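@channel sequence for tomorrow's demo:
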Amino acid sequence: MGIAVKCGAIVLASFMLAPSFMGAAGRAAAKAPEAQSRNGLICDTEEQVEQFIALIGTEGNLSAAIDAVNAAAGSPSACAVAEVQYVAEEEVRHMRTFRIVRVLVIGFNDGDNWFPVRPPEFQFSIFDPGGIDV
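structure tokens (generated this afternoon):
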């Protein structure tokens, strides 16, 4: 079950990709990676993010792409847009201009408050180094 089920209200209109994201695996780390927060796509698997990228490229409709991925997964919460706190783990794939990154989700926002995710949950997200909206 994905974090999206726990998030409550999800605002698709505010889907933005963080342009400054660089996972700890991509830099020489003298210190532990820091938690960050963002409102963006999170999915249960890398393959679901890949499906989303393919669908958004052909359909151009964020909501329809998420619905199609969730239908294929047989789960209404396989992928969603949510505001989460996370620690970047590693870039797992580069697809077109996007990077698929495994993240450890440690918190979520329901629109009003932040809540911890216990235990923290690995998810996959998409980042665009150019900062372009999807």
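heads up for whoever presents: The longest strand covers residues 79-95.
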